[in-house]
Amino acid sequence: xxxxxxxxxxxxxxxxxxxxxxNVNISxxxxxxxxxxxxxxxxxTTFLRCINRMHELIPGARSEGxxxxxxxxxxxMHPIFVRLKIGMVFQRPNPFPNLSIYDNVIAGYKxxxxxxxxxxxxxxxxxxxxxxxxxxxxxxxxxKKGTFLSGGQQxxxxxxxxxAMEPEVLLFDEPTSALDPIxxxxxxxxxxxxxxxxxxIIVTHNMQQAARVSDKTAFFYVGELVEYxxxxxxxxxxxxxxxxxxxxxxxx
Length: 252
Fold this sequence. Notes:
This protein has 252 residues and is of the alpha/beta class. 36% of the residues lie in helices and 27% in strands. Strands 6-7-8-3-9-10 form a six-stranded mixed β-sheet, with helices on both faces. Strands 2-1-4-5 form a four-stranded antiparallel β-sheet, with helices on one face. β7 (169-173), α8 (181-194) and β8 form a beta-alpha-beta unit.
């Protein structure tokens, strides 16, 4: 039996009166890639942001129910601690424009007032960039600004920045939608490597991507988790007609 790392039970989220996530129960196994898919406005990105309490940054947001990380309720932890344990990579690459590649990677330590000896910082930078499959490309230009990199490299730099804090879970919100096909392919290859050390939860509009990269897939529709299963089963034998209609393109 796989051990799960993220569990939600009876989880709901609102923005003001708008009930966007409805009674979601899900158990996400450790060291898996889980794709979250569904039509626009179905609650998938909000649910992703609820996992590390990012949705709270929007005025009028509230939630109820349980969201557990390793059997601890993330809503009873300090939000900063939650976001150290659960890193996030956004749709568009967003390296800090005024910082070097090196300083981008260790930005989380500086932002949280954590002082480290140079040797330790060097080690974190190399390890994080290596895990993000970027070290060989940038090792001779660590003190150049991160914005001089290509889009795909910038996204890998953002992944390295998230990894540097030693999270257990990495959340990705449509991480390749702003990238060209070659960069997309390199990020998808990276997912297979990353899951050796982390649990990955990826919101994607791209069903082919979900089929290629994930172990399990969750299908959301109008705020509800309609179906959650092994990806191969979901795509070959969906149990719910709404899932089948979505996968076969009857609605988007």
